[in-house]
Amino acid sequence: MSSSVPLEFQSPENIGSSEELARAEVYGLLAELFFAPPSQDLFDQLRVAVTEAPMAGAFLERSWGELVGASRRLSLSAVEAEYVALFGGVGKPAVCVFASWYLAGALNQQPLVQVRRTLELLGLERPQGVLETEDHIASLCEVMRYLIAGDDLSVSNLAAQQRFFNSHLRAWVDGLCDALSAQAQANFYRAVADFARDFFAVEAQGFDLLEV
Predict the structure, then answer these.
(1) According to the CATH classification, is domain 7-209 in 1.10.10.10?
(2) Is the Cβ–Cβ distance between 30 and 197 less than 8 Å?
(3) pLDDT given for residue 125 in this prediction
(4) What pLDDT does 54 receive?
(5) Cα separation of 48 and 51, whole Å?
(6) 83 vs 13, 86, 101, 204, CA distance in Å?
(7) Which of 19, 26, 85, 184 sits at a 20 to 30 Å CA gap from 193?
(8) Could you tell me what percent of the chain has a pLDDT over 90?
(9) Per-residue model confidence (pLDDT) at position 7
(10) DSSP notation for the chain
(11) Which pLDDT score, from 0 to 100, does residue 4 have?
(12) Quick one: how far is CA 95 from the chain centroid?
């Protein structure tokens, strides 16, 4: 990924890639933000990002502007502390980021088994050194990014994207976003949740219209 800033909100002279690549970049950005606090480089990109899409009223403009605005108001150290308060700590975190929690009420349940079966069929596996299970929202977003931007068209295609999104993301991502938005300590990540909710809604609408 050449940039973590979605193509729709880069300067017009930098826009030359397809809508599909833009989608992949959004999934990559969400994966980064949910997996860990933003790196200094990513945070710097967000703070200087264009907040108006090249075409008025374009996709995600409002929630993207709020995310960029939050990155400009807050320091990176504040965002790092917020991430720990929301997703870290000892015991159950304030906000859980695993599909099993929302779909089955506990961690490491059938939704995780189903994700692992799908990844096996796709020829994918959890990287060594990664402790989070495969139903982590960041992991699922990374798989979607691969299914959009991967070179193997027998795997990376619209039909595979639709199946994976509908099977492993669609039913629970709004619950995650709602849980984040409800947290009093959420500031930067409330903006992330709003952006993610809008993006996933557009994805769902697009897949509903898709005939594959």
Answers:
(1) no
(2) no
(3) 83
(4) 52
(5) 9
(6) 34, 5, 19, 27
(7) 19
(8) 72
(9) 43
(10) ---SS-GGGS-GGG--S-HHHHHHHHHHHHHHHHHSSPPHHHHHHHHH---S-SSTT-TTHHHHHHHHHHHHHS-HHHHHHHHHHHH-SSSS-SS--BHHHHHHSSSSSHHHHHHHHHHHHHT--PPTT--S-TTBHHHHHHHHHHHHH-S-TTTSSHHHHHHHHHHHTTTTHHHHHHHHHT-TT-SHHHHHHHHHHHHHHHHHHHHHH---
(11) 53
(12) 15
For residue 58, give both structure tokens.
């374009």
Residue ranges of domains in the chain: 7-209
Residue 25 CA to residue 19 CA, distance in Å, equals 10
Please give the radius of gyration of the chain, using alpha carbons only, rounded to the nearest integer. Answer: 17
Look at residue 212 in the predicted model and tell me its pLDDT. Answer: 52
Encoding tokens for residue 200? Answer: 């996933």
Residues of the chain with confidence (pLDDT) below 70: 1-17, 53-58, 90, 211-212
Residue at 38: amino acid letter: P
Tokens of 107: 């961690």
Q: Which residue has the tokens 């079966």?
A: 117
| Residue 103 contacts residue 172 (beta carbons within 8 Å) | yes
